[in-house]
Every structure is written in C-alpha cells, then in structure tokens.
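To close the section, here is one more complete example, presented without commentary so you can practise reading it yourself. The ligand is glyoxylic acid.
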Amino acid sequence: MKPKILVSREVFPEVIEHLAAYFEIDYHAEDAALQPAELAARLAGKAGAITMLSDRIDDDALAGAHSLKAVCNVAVGYNNFDLAAISRAGVMATNTPGVLDDTTADTVWALLMASGRRIVAADRWLRAGYWQRWKFNDDWLGQDVHHATLGILGMGRIGQAVARRAAGFAMKVIYHNRQPLPAEQERACNATWVDKDALLRDADFLVLMLPYSPAVHHIVGAAELAQMKPSAHLINVARGGIVDDGALIDALREKRIAGAGLDVFENEPALDARFCELDNVVLTPHIGSSSRATRLAMAMCAADNLIAALHGRRPPNLLNPEVFGG
Ligand code: GLV
Ligand code: GLV
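Output:
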C-alpha cells in the first residue's frame, strides 16, 4: 500500500504524476488555500504533505496528524511554518532553496527598472489617451539605472544574483549583511559591504532580499525611510512585514522617496487599498519566482524532498535536521 499524502493546492499535472508513482494523493486541486480547520482535518492520517506559503502549519494544524512524517513547502521562505511546533511533533520540514534564485533576481530587476523609469504609470497614462499633453520636462523624468548606486539589504544567494546583474548597468553595488561575504564572493558580485546607515543613505535603489523572521519585522520603517534619498526607490521581492507598509505609504504619498516596486505585502493576499491611490508604486501579486520553469522546478524539488523523507532518506532541503534520526 502506498503512503497517503496531501497536496494542499493546485500544482502542475507533471508534479502530481511524479508523486502518484509513490503515494496515494489527497489532492486539493484548487487555486485557493484550504481553511485552517480543513487543512488540519486533511493532514490527519497522512504520512506527508506538499504545502504552499498560504498554509499555516502550526500546533493546531498538526493536532490530529499523528502519522505525519514530513511537510514540504513549495517555496524557499517558510514563515508559514511554526518550525518549533513541527519539530516538537517529530515532523520533517523542507523548503526549495536555489532553484528560484535567478528568476527572483530577474523579478527584482523588472520592478527596479519599472519603478525607476516610471514604466507602469506611463503605460496607464498612455492608455488613458493623454499623449497629446506630453512635455519634454515632465512627470516621466525618472531615475537613471545605469551608473546609479544599488544597495542590497540581505546578501544571500538571491541578493548575490541581483548584484551580479548590475554589472551590465555599470552600477556601484553596496550591501549590508550581518556578516560581510567572503572576499572571493564579494569580488564575484563586485559589491562592497557597508553599514546599514550608509546603505540607506547612499542607495539610489534599495533592494530588500532578507528572509522574514520576527527579528527583521519592520526593519524598514519610518526612521529608515527618512534616511533614504528623496530620489531613491525601494524594491521588495522578499517578504511582507520586512517593511512597515503604513510608513511606506506615507513616504510615497509625501514624495519623501521617489518610488517603490513591491511584490510582497503585509497581510497577503489582502492589499492595503491606499497603495492603489499612488502613482509612484509598481505592484505585483507575489510573483517573484513565477516563471513556468521555475515554479515547476520548485514543485518538483518539494516532491523530491517528500519522496526522500518517506523512504527513510534525508531530504536534500531539510530545515530541522534534529528530528531526522538517521
Ligand atoms: C516565495 O516567496 C518563496 O519563498 O519561495
Ligand atoms: C534566500 O533565501 C537567499 O538565500 O537569498
């Protein structure tokens, strides 16, 4: 008999086919998250689960899941996991690092350039039929990307992939991390470590690339926004909650910074309606990793983590090795 697993939300058919060779699948094939009570009910009796960022896995979700051995998130971030609760329950947790680095770095650049050069506002204006009013010296004067200073807060794999792309624009790249990178990695990104104040003060484009944890909650708030140049743009493709959205809305409305490109928000999938009233912000619905190839690679990565876990092998992307006895 095949072990039973839950797939909590719609994924690609190839992934289901791959998993079906090993498991009996309870598939919630819908593009909506399971409500917490239903998630808990459907985890009961399962040996494993493929989960998404919209699934909160905590004590309540795990209360009846006595046979559960592994939860495999289709995401590199896992702030939807209460990792301590998962470990207490003796369940392995995995994520999907690596496979989405380049696609996410590309998304950062798409938002950076769109914000700097006011592409989305210009598109809206053009569609609205205003072209006759065009002036040489007007609203469309953007921030040059070439030769500007790129500041990166959080220099993990994705931050480094963002930095490498800056070479083609002859940008100066500065970054802040708790620890500077090893010299060889710094050279590969052509990036210089600076303290956080210098990063905020000097960046023309400030890119946030930190994983979320309570320690970085609102690490960019009113005080940090006040340190930025009025011509600067803030790009967040990392996580909601790193930025204080209310403080950012105020700064954008009062033009204390020039613009922002945002893929992530506090309280997703709800969007603070005040963002929609602003012309100097580009908004996307958490699509950082969203190319077909990368989303497929992420789902396959999660599937392979689950297959390994339920066959007594150490999953390649195990987040809580202490629960793995072998
Ligand atoms: C996306 O946000 C991820 O964490 O993979
Ligand atoms: C993200 O997880 C990174 O390593 O940058």
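Once you have examined the tokens, check your reading against these statements. The radius of gyration is 22 Å. The pocket of glyoxylic acid (ligand 2) is lined by residues 76, 97, 156-159, 209, 211 (CB under 6 Å).
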